[in-house]
Design a protein that fits this description.
By secondary structure, this protein is mainly α. The protein has six helices and three strands. Strands 1-3-2 form a three-stranded antiparallel sheet. Helix 1 crosses helix 3. The longest helix is centred in the middle third of the chain and has 17 residues. It holds the Pfam family Penicillinase_R.
């Protein structure tokens, strides 16, 4: 699976949240406030996502309709494994130690993780 840019990820979030096929115009309407992309910018990112096998494009009348080919869960899972491999040599312990040592986790979050892990 090909990695996608942050901008492409913004569009994928909208597509995943919508769950049904969606047009570029509908995506443009759902962009966060402050994101002033023109339709051509959105179309460029959607074209790249199609080339990367993330979305399917289908012509419906005058509009193109986009549908996710990869689920959010699947994409995030593969990206997480890739990140662990690239940055931490595949070690979850190294990753967690980095979070704890950098004070990025609160005690409550650590307790929640312990509880979640014990139930697994």
């Amino acid at each position: 699976m090909t990695k996608i840019s942050k901008s492409e990820m913004e569009l994928m979030q909208i597509i995943w949240e919508h769950a049904a096929p969606i047009t570029s115009g509908e995506i443009l309407e759902r962009l966060p406030l402050g994101r002033d992309w023109k339709n051509t910018t959105v179309l460029t990112f959607l074209s790249r996502l199609a080339e990367k096998g993330m979305v399917q494009v289908e012509k419906q009348g005058k509009a193109n309709v986009y549908k996710a080919l990869v689920s959010e869960k699947s994409y995030r899972g593969k990206e997480t494994v890739s990140f662990l491999e690239d940055v931490h040599g595949g070690s979850v312990k190294s990753f967690m130690a980095s979070l704890v040592d950098s004070n990025e986790l609160t005690q409550q979050e650590i307790d929640e993780l312990k509880d979640w892990l014990s139930k697994r």
